[in-house]
Amino acid sequence: AQSVTQLGSHVSVSEGALVLLRCNYSSSVPPYLFWYVQYPNQGLQLLLKYTSAATLVKGINDFEAEFKKSETSFHLTKPSAHMSDAAEYFCAVSESGAGSYQLTFGKGTKLSVIP
Amino acid sequence: DTAVSQTPKYLVTQMGNDKSIKCEQNLGHDTMYWYKQDSKKFLKIMFSYNNKELIINETVPNRFSPKSPDKAHLNLHINSLELGDSAVYFCASSLGLAGVIDTQYFGPGTRLTVL
To answer: How close A24 comes to chain B (CA, Å)?
Structure first.
């Protein structure tokens, strides 16, 4: 069975500092990995996804993530935090199905940005 | 135009009642999903529905039933509501091509409160 572990339920960074949100996965087959962001009282928005192409994946708003098979990790980074990045971030893993696939989410990491 | 919409946004009801949440997508997608987000922000898949194939998460009580009148709609019916059903329910959709891990687009969520 697939699973995702996000280390740190709450991360605080100063504005302009590096953002690092950690995600480790478990999957019996090559995984597909995602990062979603949820702003307060809103739905989820895809930041980026890994689908077995390049191991370094670039997403929206200058976020990127690197797939490391040896470490079973898919950590999310951003060089410089903005106040607008404050949100809940979810890592998710999936395996392909016959026309549908189900995302298994981590428990989320709340990012706070300090002025 | 909203890609994935849900109604209502808020739903407050008494224990034992039956209620429905509606979901519509105008993206032309073939697959739709329902997720439940609990009070700790944990997201869990409930159902996926693709070309009349329903995949049910085995942990979902049979009081919950998805109904799809057409490809653009996947409604969620809940019978005999219980306190533990209080959560935010998210609808999502994706292209649904077999073997393709495409992006899931999420609706804004419906906050269900059972009193």
So the answer is: 16
